[in-house]
Structures are given as C-alpha cells and as structure tokens.
Amino acid sequence: MHETGVHERALAAIPGHDAAQAPAHERAKLRLQDVGKRFETAGRAASVAVQDFTLDVAQGEFLVIVGPSGCGKTTVLNMLAGLERPTAGRVTLDGVEIAGPGPARGVMFQDYALFPWQTVRGNIGFGLRHGPAGSALSAKERAARVQSCIDLVGLNGSEDKYPHELSGGMRQRAALARLVANEPEVLLMDEPLAALDAQTRLILQDELLRIWGQDRPAASRRTVVFITHAIDEAVFLADRVAVMTTHPGRLKALIDIPLARPRNDATRASPEFQALTQHIWSLIRDEAYRATVT
Amino acid sequence: MGEAAAYADYPSVRTRAMRRGARSVLVYLRTMAVFVVVWALVAHLKSNPVLLPSPLAVMQAAVDLARDLELFYHAWVSFARMLVSLAIASAIAIPLGLAMGLSRTFDRIVDPTIELLRPISGIAWIPLALFIFGVGNALPVFIMTYAGFFPILLGTVAGVRDVDRRLIDAARTMGVPQRTIVTRVVVPAALPSLMVALRLGVATSWTAVVAAELIGAPSGLGYAVEWYRELLMTPQVMAFIAMIGVLGYVCDRLARLLSDVFAPWASR
Amino acid sequence: MSAKGGAVGVHARALGLGFLLPASILVVWQALGMASGNPRTPVPTHVVSSAIDLVASAELPLAILQSLMRVFAGFAVAAAIAVPLGLAMGAFRSVDRNVDPLVESFRPIAAIAILPLAILWLGTGTAAAVMIVAYAAFFPIVVNTVAGAKGVNPTLLRAASTMGLSRLRIVRTVIVPAALPAIGVGLRIGMGVAWTAIVAAELAVGAKAGGGGSGGIGQMMFVFYAYSIELNRIIVCMIAVGLVALALDRLLRLAMRLAMPWSAT
To answer: What is the pLDDT of residues B90-116, one digit of tens each?
Structure first.
C-alpha cells in the first residue's frame, strides 16, 4: 500500500533501526531501576507516587502500563520523558541516565497538547522547525517529512485546519503525526485514546499498531510505552502489560501477551484475548472497587 | 465554491439565519423607537428645551454639527489621543507583563509597587497632572495611558502564567530551546488573554478620556460636551454624548477585530 | 520543621524584594525634591506631615465620608434596579430581547459624559453626584447579573421543570442561587467603578462650578490644585482615594465570601 511505503521510508531514517545490529528486541532500551517519586507539598506530609519500580523495556517492544486512576502511571511516563526527576533510583535510555526532556523520547499527551494557534501542518512541523529534529533538514525536506506524516495518519484535506476545527479522532491523529514527525526512538503515550468514543477508539487502536509497524519484523519497530486504564486496550496493543497498584504506585505484575501479530478484530474476539483481559481485571478488581467507594 | 454548494444543498440554513438577523434588527429598532417616543412625550410635556430638548432638536443639532465637521473633529481628537495612549501603555505594559509572568523574582520586585499604584484611579491623577502638564494634549494622554496600563499589564501577566503547562512540556520533549519556547509557545499562548486585556484597556481609557478632557483639555469630545453645557445648548450636549457612545462602541468593535486578526484561534 | 523555617525565609525574602522598589522610589523622590530647592515641590516627608494635618483637622475624613455616602446612595439605587432587571433579562427571553438594545446603546457612554446633563438637571450638589454613581455602577451589575442568570446549567433548569416547578418558582429556586456568584462579581466591579466615578464627578464639579461647596474628596483635591497649589495635600488625597478603593474592594470580597461560602471567588 502507498501509505505503508511512505512509512518505511520514514522509518529507515531513524537511528537504531538497523537490522545489522544484534536482535533489537533483546536489548533493554529503557530501564527503570528501583525508581521512587515523592511529592513534597509545603505544610503537608509528602505523598509517595511511585515506589520500588523496576522495569526494562526492550528495543522495539510495545509495553502498556495499566492500573486504576491515581496509581502513578503518568508519573512513571513523565520520568521516562524527563519532565519529572525520580527521587530514588535510576531511569536510563540506552544505559544513559535521563536528565531532562529530549527529542529521542517523543511524548503524546492525554489531551494531545496541540498548539491552538498552529494549523495541523504547523503542529506537525513544530519540532522540526524549532527543535533539533529538523536542524539538519532543508525547508523542502522538512515540508516533505510533514507531508509524509500527514499521509501516514490520513489527515489529507485537513492540513490547514486549526485544532479547534478538528474532531477528537482527527486531533488524536494530528498529535500522533506530530509525534512521529520528530522521529523519536521511543514513543511515550499517556492515555492517548482516553478522550475518544468507543468506535473511534477501536479504529485508532488498529491505526496505532499499523504505524508502529506490527506487520514488520520486530527489529524495525520503535519502542513504545503506552499508558491506559482500559484493560482490553492494553491487551490488544501490548507485547507485555505492566499492572500497577496504588498507594504507593508499585508494579504488581508483568504479563506477557503472546497473541499473534498482526492483530485485528479476530484477535479481539478470540478466547485468549478474553482470558488475558479477565486475568488482568482480577489483579486490579479489588483495588478498583475500593477506589469507587472511598 | 464548496461553501456555496453546501449552502445550495441547505437553502433553509441561510435564509433562516438571515431572517433571524433581520428580526433582531427589527426588535432593536422597535425598542429604540419606544424610547424615542417616550422621550418626545416627556419633552413635550416639560416643554423646556434647555432641560430636555426634543429628539428632533437633538437630531437637528447632530446634523448641523456633522455638517460643519465639528462633531468629527472632536471625535477624531479624542480617538487619536486614545490610540497614542494605548500605544504607549502597551509598549510599557506588555514587555513588563511578559517579564513578570516569566520571572518569579522580577514579579516579586515589581508587583507590590504595581499593587500600590493600581487602586489610585487615573482620574485621581488629574489635579497633579494638571499642575505638571497644564491644559493641553499631554494631560489626557497621560491619564489615558495610566488608565489603560493596568488592565493590559495584568492581562499579560495572567496570560503568561496561565499558559497550559503541557504545551510547554510538549515543546520541551521535542528538544525546543528555552528562548524559542518563550517566543513560539508562551507568547502565542498568552495572546488571547492579552487581547482581552487590550479590550479592557480600551474601555477604561475611553472612560478616562472624557473626564480628562472635561477638566483639562482645549479640545476633544469631553471638552465639547462641557463647552455646550456652559452655553446651555443642550441639544448639542446630547449630540456629543451620543458621539461618545458611538465611538466607544466602535473602539470596542475595533479591539475585537484586532483580537480576531491576531488570535483567530481564540474565538471558540 | 526545617521546611517550615525555609518557607518563612522565602516569605521574608519575597517581602524584602517587594519593599525594595517602593523604598528606592521614595528615597530618589525625596532626594530630587530636596535638590530642586522649590518649597512647592512635593516630597515624601512633607506628604506625611500634610497627611497628619489633614487627618488631625478632620478635613480629610469628613471629605471621604461625604464621598462615601454618595457612593453608597448611588450604588444602592443602581443595585436595586440592575439586579431585578438583570434577573428578568436572564430568565425571560422576551424581556432580554426588548431591553437589551437599550442597555447596549447606553453602556458605551462613559458615566462622566452625562455629568453635564446631571448638572443641568440636578445642580452641582449631591443629587447629581448620586445620579452619576448610579449610572456608572448600573452597567457592570446588570451585565454580570444577566450573564449569571443565562449561564445556569440548562440541565438544572430541565431537572427543575421535570419536577413540575412553575417558571417563576424556577427563577427563585434555581436561577437566583446559581446567578449569585456572578451578581457578586458585578456588585464588586460596580462598587469600584462607582468610587472612580464619584471622584471624577466631584473633580469636574469642582473644576466647572468653582469652589461652591458640593464637597467630597474629589472637590477637595481640586481646591488644593486650583486655589492653594498644595501638591503635598493633593498627593495625600490620591493615596486616600487608593486606600478607600482597596478597602471597598476587600469589604465586598469579604461580604461575598460570607454570603456565598460555596463560591470560590
């Protein structure tokens, strides 16, 4: 297909997607070691958001973190992004400690954080124009990259619209294109589908896997850390699901999702899918229940 | 083309909108007609053209004043003074507000002084300013600049502070440098709030101009109103008061237009 | 413990920074004023002694009191008309459609602009001043009340009407309470505008009607300008105008908080 072709060209430019290297999925791309995060509020007892959190994310892996609201999922993601620093332990990318935000780790925010004064095209090209991602590119190359990302997410025809003129699903696509345009090695996604209606959500789950490259060999995929509170979404997308619990936020279980790729509607209907969903739900049910009555 | 075609598909949408617009104009005219009739009746009963001239006399006065351009001359003088004042006020308040919004330390140094001055209305400065500047152009410009300064400053500071944290985070995660974040994220994000502030500034300085001109200027709408009051030419007084209202409305519309041009994304 | 000490330290430093600029302005002003050699030039020390004189002789407190009485009278008139009218406009479309053109046509006319008319009709005394204040305070109150009454969550209205309440009863039980915070904001803005308007009106009356006694702080300032050229005293009056504005705003805020504990403003 035309779109896939464009995407492969975009991917080929990313460092770390070289098939000649050792089997990519076996190397730890991101590593969280005994990570803790306390928030100090003046005049109140410090609250512990995350504690003793240890997790490796392999190159090319699609890792999903699920857990009830308030379990510190977003804090973990923010530490990976470099937007927050851990108060204990280490967070590393390729063995190098993460000291701040950087273009190698792209973030997709929960309500997308699209710049309201920029059109779709302006948003997608923002990082290329003002950040290091596009500093080596000519204006023409930048425009070509932006166009390929527009094609990739299927926003043709809406390039010159402002975010407030877009539907929720289109905004989500624009944010995804902006993320991919900077060609980060790691994609960090904070509940990117939470604000969408159920049907749009299913469609965009499929799209997300296509763009991630689920029908290509694991070595040419990007590393994704994806946060959600929807268990079925986690099972459908993930290679592994990390289940978190609250007070303090800890890693409760790491569950392999052996469902075959590419995944599609048949996957959702399969008994294995149902069983995995049930299993994860059983892990967090008690806590989720308690959260609704306290 | 596309839009025209869409309208062609749904002709009722367009006609309905037009009908609604026409109806609201009609309601407006009806209300104002009732007002004018009541006014004419009261004027007729009072039959004192100095205290309450008839609507017709005021209309006649307005036409005469417009014909020898006196109405427009004073309106232009007041309007030009407001433009100059707002330009000066913005030139000081916007950079100051940006710096205060961005730097906590700078804010701590400057803010108490601002808060000490702010409750003193521009009008309260008139006697002192009269002594310093005398009667002339400088007095109304000073008073209006002072009056317009505070809303613009506070709006800029609030706009900068209220910038959605995640927009800045988004730019940071793309590796955009700090300075570029200020010019490309903070400034545009604060622009809608700045535009609202500018509109407020227009309103407050327009109120101040009339007071300043009434007391200490040899020209302008405020001066004209007072001049004709002393001559007991009430129709002319009312014509100029109406002009103050019309121009105040036009200024507000212009400020809104400015907002639509510079921050089109802010209007819903 | 240590965190608390740190917080106090930060607070103290912030306060110190805040004093820096006003203090240095005062020092520079004093130095320049003394260097100018003209005894008329106002300097902070003379402003302070003038303030003591004006307060001790009861001139300033009496002038402020007179202005305040006019503000309260005009404000009461404005609120008594604007709040019911605003509620009616917000609750009933027909009232809104018919009255709104009138409100919107007069709103851009600054209160001070109608001062000549007020003088013509009511003379240079308290009545004209009250009229100006009422006119000035009327618009912020009515506009905010309409916005508050119209901004009521429509689901609440529908919920009330499904319970079989009459329209009038809905106004009383749903629209009024829901609009109260907005009315409060309107009253606060209206009070600020009213105070500015009274100073302007008294100044203008002082300027145009001569010394002839309508009094109030605005006219007092003008007398200091026009007849005795006492700049120190003018500055005392300016500071008093600012302090009263601040006190009125704080007072209204406090009243709103006490009257509406559920509202954040």
So the answer is: 999 999 999 999 988 899 889 888 988
Q: What is the rounded average pLDDT of the residues C238-252?
A: 91
Test the B interface: residue of C112, C244, C249 with most B CBs within 10 Å: C112
SS3 assignment for chain A: CHHHHHHHHHHHCCCCCCCCCCCHHHCEEEEEEEEEEEECCCCCCCEEEEEEEEEEEECCCEEEEECCCCCCHHHHHHHHHCCCCCCEEEEEECCEECCCCCCCEEEECCCCCCCCCCCHHHHHHHHHHHCHHHCCCCHHHHHHHHHHHHHHHCCCCCCCCCHHHCCHHHHHHHHHHHHHHCCCCEEEEECCCCCCCHHHHHHHHHHHHHHHCCCCCHHHCCEEEEEECCHHHHHHHCCEEEEEECCCEEEEEEEECCCCCCCCHHHHHCHHHHHHHHHHHHHHHHHHHHHHHC
Report domain extents, chain C. 46-259
CA distance A2 to B150: 57
User: Is the ipTM of this structure higher than 0.95?
Assistant: no
B174 reaches A (C-beta below 8 A): yes
pLDDT at A14: 40
C11 touching B, CB under 8 A?
Answer: no
Asked whether the beta carbons of B196 and B158 are under 8 A apart, the reply is no
Contacts of C115 in chain B (CB under 8 A): 214
CATH label, C46-259, candidates 3.10.580.10, 1.10.10.10, 1.10.3720.10, 3.40.50.300: 1.10.3720.10
One CATH from 1.20.1440.20, 1.10.3720.10, 3.40.50.300, 3.40.50.2300 for B58-266: 1.10.3720.10
CA dihedral B197, B198, B203, B209 (to 10 degrees): 130
Compare B16 and B41 and report the one with higher pLDDT: B41
Output the pLDDT for position C82.
95
More confident residue, C120 or B87: B87
Which residue has 């425009």 as its token pair?
A143
Identify the chains in contact with A, defined as 3+ C-beta pairs within 8 A.
Answer: B, C
Band of residue A104 on the pLDDT scale cut at 50, 70, 90: confident
